[in-house]
Write a structure and sequence with these properties.
Layout (H helix, E strand, L loop, with lengths): L6 E4 L5 H9 L2 H12 L5 E4 L6 H8 L3 E6 L2 H6 L8 E3 L11 E6 L12 H10 L1 E12 L2 H5 L4 E7 L2 E10 L4 E10 L2 E10 L3 H8 L3 E10 L3 E8 L1
Parallel strand pairs: 1-10, 2-3, 2-5, 3-4, 5-6
Antiparallel strand pairs: 6-12, 7-8, 8-9, 9-10, 11-12
């Protein structure tokens, strides 16, 4: 694709937040998450990495007491289209709230943005904000995703009449997946890079057992998403 000679790199979700729902919304997985949540007796929910607020908006309309959160100011702004409740700016590995919840929820592979050394803080913070027997529920990339993107994936198209290119590739040595977005705006080319870490199931379970009884559903979305449930000990 062609664009202006001007080019700039931006932080995660600086630009992508505006187009997140059009490019990345996964309706099938959204239904799976919702079905699981509704099958359990949760009432109070803290959602981490809420992004564009789609799940938070659905849960609020269904009567859940939900607080949404994200580290990105741009995502918080984008979420106003989907969710009109409390939306906090916080880091999911370092927060302290006065409330305790039945459920701490983190979907859309958001945990994969963490580095391995950040996992314990993620689990500890969730543990500290749950009622006794409350649950942490998150999904993460299936290890098979590394093989899926061994050869670079390239998608090109238009979003709101603006050309874009989206590429995904993986690094088996580092167990990482890199998503690269290029937006060809009237003012020039803007690029965002998103690096995610693909964790081994045994690594996640070992770190969680310090705080939770753990259930892992490896075929939540076969070869794509693993669902992890931690029940506070």
């Amino acid at each position: 694709m062609e664009g202006s000679a001007n080019s700039q790199n931006v932080n995660n979700y600086t630009i992508l937040a505006r187009y997140y729902d059009e490019l990345l919304q996964d309706e099938d997985s959204l239904s799976l998450w919702l079905n699981y949540i509704e099958s359990e007796p949760f009432q109070s929910v803290l959602e981490l990495a809420s992004g564009s607020g789609v799940m938070a908006g659905i849960l609020k309309k269904k009567g859940y007491d939900i607080i949404a959160s994200d580290i990105s100011q741009e995502m918080k702004e984008a979420a106003k289209e989907n969710y009109d409740g409390d939306y906090l700016l916080l880091n999911m590995t370092d927060y302290a709230l006065p409330e305790r919840f039945d459920l701490v929820l983190c979907i859309c592979d958001s945990i994969n943005y963490l580095y391995p050394e950040e996992l314990d803080d993620f689990f500890r913070c969730a543990f500290e904000h749950l009622h006794q027997n409350g649950r942490l529920i998150f999904d993460m990339h299936h290890p098979e995703r590394i093989n899926e993107f061994k050869e670079e994936y390239i998608e090109e198209g238009y979003v709101n009449d603006m050309p874009y290119q989206w590429t995904i590739d993986s690094d088996a040595y580092d167990s990482t997946i890199c998503e690269h977005f290029t937006f060809y705006t009237k003012d020039g080319m803007i690029q965002e890079n998103h690096l995610q870490h693909v964790f081994a199931i045994d690594e996640i379970k070992e770190k969680m057992l310090k705080y939770f009884d753990v259930e892992i559903i490896e075929d939540f979305v076969p070869d794509e998403k693993i669902l992890v449930i931690g029940r506070k000990k």
